[in-house]
Write a structure and sequence with these properties.
The structure is a single chain. By secondary structure, the chain is α+β, with helices and mostly antiparallel strands. Helices cover about 35% and strands about 30% of the residues. The protein contains two helices and four strands; from the N terminus they run βαββαβ. The protein has a four-stranded antiparallel sheet. Helix 1 crosses helix 2. The longest helix has 20 residues. The chain is globular and about 35 Å long.
Length: about 90
């Protein structure tokens, strides 16, 4: 069976009272969920995250086969998300 095409996604969550510690905790939970799902055979790769503290917005990027995998990661990590979009390189 052919492996799925892996795409890059940008995920955004509104987090009231977001601070550095909360952002670090969110990243840890998401990375742990990705590791767990990788052990189960999902093709996922953590890329990076950003905390836009003044905007109360946490964003992160990962490689995944589709948006269903994004939903699964967020569900496992107990991190709700508000927006997800595929990102392509401008370089």
């Amino acid at each position: 069976m052919a492996s799925p095409t892996v795409r890059t996604f940008f995920v955004e969550s509104y987090v009231p009272r977001l601070d550095d510690a909360t952002a670090a905790a969110l990243s840890s939970r998401l990375r742990a969920a990705i590791a767990e799902l990788r052990r189960e055979g999902h093709t996922l790769e953590w890329l990076r995250s950003f905390a836009l503290v003044d905007e109360e917005t946490y964003v992160w990027m990962l490689k995944a086969a589709d948006v269903d995998e994004i939903a699964l990661v967020n569900q496992r990590a107990r991190v709700p998300y508000d927006h997800v979009v595929e990102a392509v390189s401008g370089e």
